[in-house]
Amino acid sequence: MTHSDDDSFVSDDAEATGSTTLSMEDGDIHVRQDGPRGAPVLLLIHGSASSTRSWDPMVPLLTASHRVVRIDLLGHGRSARPAESSYAIPDQARRAGTALDRLGVEHTVVVGHSSGGAVATALAEQRPDLVTALALINTGPGLDAFIAPETAAMDFSQWPPTDEQLRAFAGTSVSRAGYQIPEELLDDVRGMTSDTLTTTMEATRSYLRQRPLPDRLAALGKPLLVLFGEDDRRWRSSSAADYRAVAGAEVELLPGLGHSPLLEDPRRTATALLAFTAPRTARVD
Length: 285
What we know:
Layout lengths: L1 E3 L13 E5 L6 E6 L6 E5 L13 H4 L4 E5 L17 H14 L5 E6 L2 H11 L4 E7 L25 H9 L11 H8 L3 H17 L2 H8 L3 E6 L20 E5 L6 H4 L1 H12 L8
Parallel strand pairs: 4-5, 4-6, 6-7, 7-8, 8-9
Antiparallel strand pairs: 1-2, 2-3, 3-5
Helix pairs in contact: 2-3, 3-7
């Protein structure tokens, strides 16, 4: 079942633009589309404690040549937050694949930010026919690349967090001097439950613990782009070199940027992404 917040989402017009909610057995999933309906599809997957809105600055730079699909993973943004559902990475990937099936998408380049890169990898493992290539943005390849937080973690026993706790937590996602995380992204964290936040974070650790991402991706043989803000405060940027174990992988460090290049410098991030996708996608008329 599909409910649309914007009639243009389901029209026959050239532009596939609007938001919808897809009803699934284990919880409703919010989906956003932008760009020409017949253009090659880019699926954008956000990281933990984030939402589709984290991609807002980049989307206008991508829609000239792509149909951009974004989803709120279960437990995030405008998607449901059921306590009884699984938040494991493979289950998040399965829902993403189902969402694309509902939208009639047959092939896509998948872009994942942070833990969204783990979901992108799991989707490629499950649906190699669907995923043509992957781009990972500041996605740690394994647990040994994780940087312990400099400040005390949020107190999940008292929820929601105070503004001070929230800004300290969000501050580790950027490095550019003077950059402020948009208030709506802080609201996304406030809108989560403490259980959902801790469970989704543990799900990423569990997935990486089972097998590092470069090993998984090497077995898939898909084209791979890895972008990494050089000043990341959550994952060692030097760990990006681990992805060179994947044959033909393109690895690029972005000087002066931190964990969230899509927010700090969307144009530079989009330029690198479009250079990667251009030779791998062809418009469908």
